[in-house]
Every structure is written in C-alpha cells, then in structure tokens.
Amino acid sequence: MIYNDEPSHNKIAYNYGSVKLSVYDWLSDIPLPAGQEAFDCVEVRFKNSRKEFFRNVHKLPLQIGDMVATETISGHDIGTVSLTGELVRIQMKKKKVDDKSPTLPKIYRKATERDIEIWKEHRAKEEALQKRSRELAIALGLEMKISDVEYQGDGSKATFYYTAEGRVDFRQLIKDMAKEFSTRIEMRQIGYRQEAARLGGIGSSGREISCSTWLTEFRSVTTAAARYQQLSLNPQKLAGQCGKLKCDLNFELDCYLEALRDFPRTDTKLLTEKGIASCQKVDIFKRLMWFTYEGDFINWHKLTVDQVKEILELNKQKQPVPSLEEYIQEEDTPENALTSENAQEGSLTRFDEKPKKRKNKKKQTSKNATTADSAITEVAEQTPNSEKIEKTAKDKVVPDTREKKGTPEGRKPRPENKKPFNNAPQKAINTSQKQEKVAPQVTNLKKSTRKPFKKPNKTAPKSDE
C-alpha cells in the first residue's frame, strides 16, 4: 500500500532482503491518528544477531534497511535499521528496556559513503584477527574457544566472543592482543547456544537453524521433552550444533502434553485372572497401549485407551478381568494391507516389495501339448503318408499298468537266485506299435551331416622279450 505517494516500509524491507531475526512490521501501512507523533526509538541490528535500541533525537526519516551511525562508549558504530514505529515500543517492553531512560544511546546521522567504506575495511580484517587471537590463546595454554570477532564501525575497538567451561584468566592475552592489533580489546563470554546463533548453520531438516533466524529466547530443554514425545534418547540425534538438546523439542511439547492428558499413566497395572499386566509402549497418535503379563514379556497385547479405562474401572471395583486376549481387536491380514497400499497411487511403499512370479503348471502343460500336436501335424503334411501318421499319433494310447500292478495276475515272479533288473521286460510288439515307433523317425527329414564315429584300432603292446 502507498500513502502520500511513498512506498511502505515492508516493501523496502523486502527489497533489502531477509535478515536474521527480522520482524514483520504489520503496522507500517496504517497511518497514525491525527496529532500523534511517531515513536522516537529505533531498533538497529549489527553483526549477526546483535540488536540494540537507539533514540532518534534528530527525528530522521528512517526506514527498514537504512544504514545509520550510532553512539557508543568510544567513537561511533555502523548498523542497519531493523524495525521502526510502534512495534519498537512493544519490543522494548518485551525485553524490559525503559524507553524513557536518559541513558539510551542516540543515532547521530545516516551513514555516509565514507563511513561505510571504513566499516567494510575493518570487517574484512576480522577473519585474520580471529585466527591470530586463537594462536595467542593456545600459546598461553588457555582453555577457551574464540568463536567470533566484531570490529566497531570506526575501528577503535574489537570485541572477541568466546566460550569456555569455567572462568578464564585472560589478562595476559588482552595485553598481547592489544600490542599485536593496536586497538582496544573487549572480551565477552557467551554460551554454546548463543555461539550457534551467532555463527548459524544448516540443521537436520535442511533449513537454517531456528536460533539464528527467528528464535530470540532460549528456553531450557530437558530429556523429559523427548520422553513425552516417545523419542529414543540418542544424544547424537537429539543434540544440535551447539552440543545441547535441540530447541525444536519444545515446539511440539505442548501438543503432546495435551494429548497425553486423556491417557492413563504408563505405570498403571491391570489385574487379570491370568496375572498382572504392565504397560510397555504407548502410541499417542493412534491412541494405543501395549501390555505384557509379568513373566511373559515376549508376548505384547495391544489395547485402545478406552479399553484400558474400562479394565481400570473394573479393577477399582475389585473385579479382575479374565484375560487381555478378550479385548484384542482383529488386525488386518497382510494381504488386505497390501491391497490397500496398492490402491493408493501416491503410496511410497508400493515399489518396496517386488511381485512374486508364480508359475502355473497347468498352463505350461497345455502349451507343451499344443506345441507337440502342431509339430506332428506340420511333419505329417510334408510326408506322403500324412493321413496314416496323424491317425497313429492320435490313436496312440499309453498302456495303463497301474491296474495290472495292483492285481496278482499282472505281476511276474522274480527268478530265483537272480537280482531284479532295473529295466522293464520287453513285450511282444504288434504291427500297429511298430508303425508308432517308426512314425517319429519320419519327422526327422534332415539328413545328419555328422560322420560316423570310428573306433581307433587298438594295437597290441610290444613285448619286452
């Protein structure tokens, strides 16, 4: 929106770009009531996530993204305006800063080109300054980690941010750095969470970590938050870049606590005639609880929350339940589950299991029979006596010897003192059967090109005599 032919603050902030801990000024497009003056304090952001409040004494027309020269204890500093208007009053009240205090620092002017050039020159030295300061700290044997360095806008002071387990005596280090860098030195100890917020990084979700983008307050995070959310207490997964528990664990904790109000406690025990059952697992989203009998911890019994409440009410009346098996619901068979998954077009698991190829033996036998009949008919058409061959092939009947084997007449007595032969005894062959045996030989029309195999003549070995 545009008032008085001037663009809104949010449009300028959008063109300026997304910055750390940026706040959306939703009051920028709303004009002030008649006779009311704009709030004279401004929020200014410096390197990384450091923000401070300054008083606009000269009533400069400042907007989000403007570079300004601000008052410091010695000299001046260069920063970027991050918020203006009535929202600054709310932010100061939230951070408990008195907006009527006479000691509130002031804004001198808008930064000139010369101010910005000097500020950029000193910002370019910060990386080399940090590396050299770490070497000096290691030479003195100090147990500290210098994580960041920030030069003042005019270059008169350098602030070193460090982390340490306890107190560090860095008096000698300050003397060495003042002699080395020829500037005023200030040391500030910060926590591991503040260090991660200043340096930034990419989290496990693939996005920038929340403490460096929008999170302003660091609430304490305990392992109880992970237990309520049914997460495994694995420090590698629960810890962030700061080495502490992730701040994300507190984001959904309230929803889990609200859902768990309707659940029975996990230490409840159910009295049954089979024995006492204790809770082993809880599924908050499906509202399910798993119980096991004492002494039989292998078999788990799944119950709903309503069923558990029903059993507890009966136990209060000193009426034990016969068994938990009566309350178990019938689960879907794996075949039904697969069909339901395959019915969903967007299912992610539809390509996990490969379909098994089932061989249908009946179809194969029928195919083989048809191929054999077709081969016989083709060969029969080529031969002159095709009609006879077709009849003999069709009239061919396999003799059924099962009935003969079952009857004593069909059996032949074995010869005495002789081992039985593995091959079946040859029977008398009729003329029709001879034709049947001759018929397949007619099918092989091609003459074999192979030469007959001749055995080599064995010569007698020469005698030694």
From TrEMBL:
Skewed-composition ranges (Basic and acidic residues): 387-419
Compositional bias ranges of the Basic residues kind: 356-365, 447-457
All copies of domain PSP1 C-terminal, residue ranges: 105-190
Residue ranges, annotated region (Disordered): 327-465
A Pfam family this chain is assigned to: PSP1
PROSITE patterns associated with the record: PSP1_C (PS51411)
Source domain of life: Bacteria
Compositional bias of kind Polar residues: 336-347, 368-386, 423-433
Name this polypeptide is given: Regulatory iron-sulfur-containing complex subunit RicT
Organism: Capnocytophaga gingivalis
Gene designation per UniProt: ricT
